[in-house]
Design goal:
151 residues, mainly alpha, Four Helix Bundle (Hemerythrin (Met), subunit A), 5 helices, elongated
């Protein structure tokens, strides 16, 4: 063994209050995904109520594309909400937001419901839940950021 092999490299201890740099969290991406879920849900309902031939290749193609997008965006919304819940919010937030866990849990459950159902009611409830989280998030940061939909 050489002398260099017997030397230890000093360990530097570092800590951070979140997984990424401050300022990277924003519920806007969850909103965009929830809006896509609602849009695809409305399109699916409208297509199923139209006079289209449900057995035609065009109908099946369009409906399957709407369903795939709806499910993908519902999962994106869930992922974005879980990042906010588990990475941004800290135990001290529970003092001022006692229903924080239930708020996020219910929103995540709505994402799941929107994936497996074609329910305009659940799509609207998801939008309402994301709007509530938007308001809670920005209040926790001490900022008044208006809720603006893209659609």
């Amino acid at each position: 063994m050489t002398d260099n092999e017997n030397q230890f490299i000093p360990t530097i201890e570092a800590s951070a209050h979140c997984d990424g740099p401050c300022g990277v969290y924003d519920p806007a991406s969850a909103r965009v995904a929830a809006e896509a879920v609602q849009s695809m849900t409305k399109k699916m309902v409208a297509l199923s109520e139209s006079d289209a031939d449900c057995g035609s290749a065009a109908y099946i193609n369009t409906m399957s594309r709407y369903a795939a997008i709806k499910e993908e965006e519902a999962q994106k919304c869930k992922d974005e909400l879980l990042v906010l819940w588990t990475d941004f919010f800290k135990p001290q937030h529970l003092e001022s937001i006692p229903d924080l866990h239930n708020t996020f849990w219910q929103a995540a459950k709505l994402c799941s419901a929107c994936k497996v159902e074609v329910s305009e009611q659940h799509a609207q409830e998801l939008m309402d839940a994301v709007e509530n989280i938007h308001n809670v998030f920005w209040a926790a940061k001490g900022r008044d950021v208006p809720w603006i939909r893209a659609s």
